[in-house]
From TrEMBL:
<dbReference type="GO" id="GO:0016618">
    <property type="term" value="F:hydroxypyruvate reductase [NAD(P)H] activity"/>
</dbReference>
<dbReference type="InterPro" id="IPR029753">
    <property type="entry name" value="D-isomer_DH_CS"/>
</dbReference>
<keyword id="KW-0520">NAD</keyword>
<feature type="domain" description="D-isomer specific 2-hydroxyacid dehydrogenase catalytic">
    <location>
        <begin position="4"/>
        <end position="314"/>
    </location>
</feature>
<dbReference type="GO" id="GO:0005829">
    <property type="term" value="C:cytosol"/>
</dbReference>
<dbReference type="InterPro" id="IPR036291">
    <property type="entry name" value="NAD(P)-bd_dom_sf"/>
</dbReference>
<comment type="similarity">
    <text>Belongs to the D-isomer specific 2-hydroxyacid dehydrogenase family.</text>
</comment>
<dbReference type="Pfam" id="PF00389">
    <property type="entry name" value="2-Hacid_dh"/>
</dbReference>
<feature type="domain" description="D-isomer specific 2-hydroxyacid dehydrogenase NAD-binding">
    <location>
        <begin position="109"/>
        <end position="287"/>
    </location>
</feature>
<dbReference type="InterPro" id="IPR006139">
    <property type="entry name" value="D-isomer_2_OHA_DH_cat_dom"/>
</dbReference>
<dbReference type="InterPro" id="IPR029752">
    <property type="entry name" value="D-isomer_DH_CS1"/>
</dbReference>
<dbReference type="InterPro" id="IPR050223">
    <property type="entry name" value="D-isomer_2-hydroxyacid_DH"/>
</dbReference>
<protein>
    <recommendedName>
        <fullName>D-glycerate dehydrogenase</fullName>
    </recommendedName>
</protein>
<dbReference type="InterPro" id="IPR006140">
    <property type="entry name" value="D-isomer_DH_NAD-bd"/>
</dbReference>
<keyword id="KW-0560">Oxidoreductase</keyword>
<dbReference type="GO" id="GO:0051287">
    <property type="term" value="F:NAD binding"/>
</dbReference>
<dbReference type="GO" id="GO:0030267">
    <property type="term" value="F:glyoxylate reductase (NADPH) activity"/>
</dbReference>
Length: 321
């Protein structure tokens, strides 16, 4: 019988899919991340492992795998937590769960509006008993509609952000990517520009790039200095895409107006200096956390495993040269 280990609780739909195929499934039902030692032990005993992005699968972990391990199915779009080349050398397939970017795009816009309208500050103002009268000058903010949004990384998520911006708020769209997307340009009047121009012109800047060598600290002090003093920076990609020390400087000196962060450089650890700033809105890496998306991810991860053992090419296979 094919054995599958799932490193954390996921929606039951994915587990049921595996069980219907006759797979033996074991789930880590604790609320703690598995240690490196525990992961090594699991990798030595199972035919397939369904991992989370918090599971660091490195050369040492893979070395503990027996010849029976055939697939690591990552329950995430990203896969930078896995040494894909080391897996390939051992004949282990790595897959991800590339789902629709709509949920993440909606979350990005929630952060945009929360920052622009100072929602968290206003909420705290009311909760602490400071709302004693209506003040026509309190919590003044700029209008989002009609402003310019700069999208860095126009994949599924970036394109979804762009459609919401254009259709819902009539925003002007600039984007920066290694590729040009002419269909998107036709739909939204978007313009492909250099990173320099985007950072200099945009009122709102959203990050939706994968983590690669070239995107690590893509936004540092030099890039932040290019932004308008009124700019809002939104990160729903990977934490290390932004240099947090530089961001703290930009926010504390009011070099930029605000930031909305769903991801962090050293999750779950967040610098105290960042936490004390009032012009930041935080969420705990939940941009894709909708029922629909999480269930879809569970089904895709499970089907990726099934496909490998049925001799098929999985939908989410990560190809490396």
């Amino acid at each position: 019988m094919i054995s599958v280990y799932i490193t954390a609780k996921i929606p039951k739909e994915g587990i049921e899919l595996l069980k219907k195929k006759g797979f033996q499934v074991e789930v880590n039902n604790s609320d703690k991340n598995l240690s490196a030692r525990e992961l090594k032990e699991i990798f030595s005993k199972f035919d397939a492992v369904l991992t989370l992005m918090t599971d660091k699968i490195d050369e040492e972990t893979l070395a503990a795998a027996s010849g029976r391990l055939k697939i690591i199915a990552n329950y995430a779009t990203g896969f930078d937590n896995i040494d894909v080349l080391a897996a390939k050398r051992r004949g282990v397939v790595v897959t991800n769960t590339p789902v629709s970017g709509q949920a993440v795009a909606e979350h990005a816009f929630s952060l945009i509006l929360a920052c622009a309208k100072r929602i968290v500050e206003a909420d705290r103002f009311v909760r602490t008993g400071k709302f004693t009268r209506w003040d026509p000058m309190a919590f003044l903010s700029g209008q989002v509609a009609g402003q310019t949004i700069g999208i860095i990384g126009l994949g599924r998520i970036g394109a979804s952000v762009g459609r919401i911006a254009y259709d819902g708020f009539g925003m002007k769209i600039l984007y920066h990517d290694i590729d040009r997307f002419q269909d998107f340009e036709l739909l939204t009047d978007a313009k492909l520009v250099s990173l320099f121009e985007l950072l200099s012109v945009a009122d709102v800047i959203t990050l939706s790039v994968p983590l690669t060598f070239s995107t690590r600290h893509l936004i540092g002090k030099r890039e932040l200095e290019l932004m308008k003093n009124s700019a809002i920076l939104i990160n729903v990609s990977r934490g290390v895409v932004v240099d947090e020390a530089a961001l703290i400087w930009a926010l504390s000196t009011k070099k930029i107006a605000a930031a909305g962060l769903d991801v962090f450089e050293n999750e779950p650890n967040i610098p105290h200096e960042l936490l004390t700033l009032s012009n930041v809105v935080f969420t705990p890496h939940i941009a894709s956390a909708t029922f629909e998306t999480r269930i879809s991810m569970a089904k895709i991860a499970a089907q990726n495993i099934i496909d490998v053992f049925e001799g098929k090419t999985p939908f989410g296979i990560i190809k490396v040269s």
